[in-house]
Amino acid sequence: MQITRELFDEVMVPNYAPSKIIPVKGKGSRVWDQQGNEFIDFAGGIAVNCLGHCHPSLVNALKEQGEKLWHLSNVMTNEPALRLAKKLTDATFAEKVYFANSGGEANEAALKLARRWAIDNYGEHKTQIISFNKSFHGRTFFTVTVGGQAAYSDGFGPKPGDIVHADFNDLASVEKLISDNTCAVMVEPLQGEGGIIPATADFIQGVRALCDKHNALLIFDEVQTGVGRTGDLYAYQGLGVTPDILTTAKALGGGFPIGAMLTTTEIAKHLKIGTHGSTYGGNPLACAVAEAVLDVVNTADTLKGVKAREQLFRTGLEGINSKYKVFSEVRGQGLLLGAVLNEQYKGRSREFLNASADNGLMSLIAGLDVIRFAPSLIISEDEIKEGLKRFEKAVAQVVNA
User: Fold this and answer.
1) Comparing C-alpha atoms, which of 151, 139, 143, 87 is closest to residue 111?
2) 272 part of the active site
3) Given CA atoms 18, 19, 21, 27 in this order, what sign does their dihedral have?
4) Of these four, 53, 126, 318, 335, which has the most CB atoms within 10 Å of its CB?
5) What is the chain's mean pLDDT, rounded?
6) pTM score, whole prediction
7) In the CATH hierarchy, which fold is given to the domain comprising 57-297?
8) What pLDDT score was predicted for residue 149?
């Protein structure tokens, strides 16, 4: 059978529009397509491949677990799940962990838990959820409604109720909405899909204080910011604010599907037996790989290295911008960075994405105006420099077109 991009149009549901490139092999921060063309990966599978492609520790964990045990269901527990849960609780504020398969599922669990906690403790009236415009929390109907992008939730009929949206980094807009009927505020410490916008310290501390005042839970969606991406294991650790519930996925499995919801014993007790579940959640294969990811990422060397690499990216992007004058700013944190297009190039992020691919670089966008970079946390200095050279060629291609 010949595998071509045309086969996608023939056999796949048309909800994606993938590039014509079909990668077949990856090693570290380099990827090769069917024709043998090499790309440097500044995309990281959208902040997923935190240790690049085919990292030896992850490959070994998968091979070893693959010879032992694949699946049990949650009628029984398993050793990799328990080891991973212990490492996550040891490394964070959390005391309890729930495993799922994706960020959307982890967020679904967090939202259901918040509602259940509020109703059990305060009564049926306490169900309001506050989220933020331009936020993204997943694609289940509950999470996509909580997400602040109506384009993703419109057109599917009646939406889950009692969900409202404030403006990110605008504490007054939260104050207007929050009340004793609020059960939770869900926030990304750094908005990803919304344009790579970090929360300010004053804003996030103010949201924490408002939640405390109104007996509401603070949920941090760290699906994109977690597992070393910002230079802390989880972004909350660099903000001086502790959430009540935290969700993590993407980089947690380094490319193997897994998600988790982390919380305290007091809150967790409201998900009693039978109130929530997942067939594959806590799967031994996924948990074995995620444990290997955590062992590599949660070290001083890796986390310090993220901040050093951030500076290389910022310096390189500033150099490109001094020549071509296309960005108004570079924002973000750690290795989740967004180059924001200025007025002259507004709305043209996809042109830069396509030009990057033409020049052997995999990058991302975050909306129409931001080029997003989320490479491996351990990408080499040489690969950063080579990737930025290719990006400069891409910028020149768009500017001179």
Assistant:
1) 143
2) no
3) negative
4) 335
5) 97
6) 0.97
7) Aspartate Aminotransferase; domain 2 (3.40.640)
8) 92
CB half-sphere exposure, 396, CA atoms < 13 A: 10
Q: Which of 134, 203, 221, 373 is flagged as catalytic?
A: 221
Asked if residue 398 belongs to a known ligand binding site, the reply is no
| pLDDT for residue 401 is more than 90 | no
Q: How far apart are CA 277 and CA 320, in angstroms?
A: 49
Task: Please report which confidence band the pLDDT of residue 88 belongs to, taking 50, 70 and 90 as the band edges.
Answer: very high
Range(s) of the chain covered by CATH 3.90.1150.10: 5-54+300-399
136 is catalytic: yes
The alpha carbons of the chain give a radius of gyration, in whole angstroms, of 21
Helices and strands in the chain: count of H runs, count of E runs: 14, 17
Residue 302 marked as a ligand binder: no
Instruction: Give the end-to-end CA distance of the chain in Å, rounded to a whole number.
Output: 38
Select which of 142, 250, 313, 391 is catalytic.
250
**For residue 135, which amino acid is it?**
S
Active site residue 8: no
Is residue 320 within 8 Å of 352, Cβ to Cβ? Answer: no
- What kind and span of H or E run contains 397? helix 381-399
Residue 141: pLDDT band (50, 70, 90) is very high
Q: What is the mean pLDDT of residues 362-390?
A: 97
> Is 92 part of any known ligand binding site?
no
Give me the pLDDT at residue 299, please.
98
3-state secondary structure of 30: strand
The residue-averaged pLDDT of 157-168 equals: 97
Residues 378, 400: Cα–Cα separation, whole Å = 33
Could you tell me the CA-to-CA distances from 277 to 153, 201, 270 in Å, in that order? 24, 35, 13
Given 136, 327, 352, 391, which residue is catalytic? Answer: 136
Structurally, what CATH architecture does the domain formed by 5-54+300-399 represent?
Alpha-Beta Complex (3.90)
Q: Is 327 annotated as a binding residue?
A: no
Following DSSP, what letter does each residue of 103-135 receive, concatenated? Answer: HHHHHHHHHHHHHHHHHHHH-TT--EEEEEBT-
d(Cα 259, Cα 298) in Å, to the nearest integer?
17
What's the pLDDT tens digit per position in 200-230? 999 999 999 999 999 999 999 999 999 999 9
Would the annotation count 224 as a binding residue?
Answer: yes
Consult the annotation and say whether 229 binds a ligand: no
Tokens found for residue 169: 């980094």
